[in-house]
Amino acid sequence: MNIKPIGDRVLVKPLKEEEVTASGIVLPDTVDKEKKAEGEIIALGNGEKLAKLNLSTGMKVLFKKWGGEEVKADDDELKILDHGDVIAIIE
Q: In the structure, what pLDDT confidence band is assigned to residue 73 with cuts at 50, 70 and 90?
């Protein structure tokens, strides 16, 4: 299934986050520490506000963890985010 966001929206594939404490305990991604997440841009809408951000597919970004809508496509968990939910580009 192909999903193409419209307007000022971005389709992102969230990256799995897992943290290990100093004592070796693995904290799952369900432990919410900072309410931001990392992901890779899969597709972009064609909105004017989004064009000003100079984003492109394949870029890694930080986004608000609780922002956007979750969708499932071809066994992948994806998020459709508004342009305002993308908070940083990871270089």
A: confident
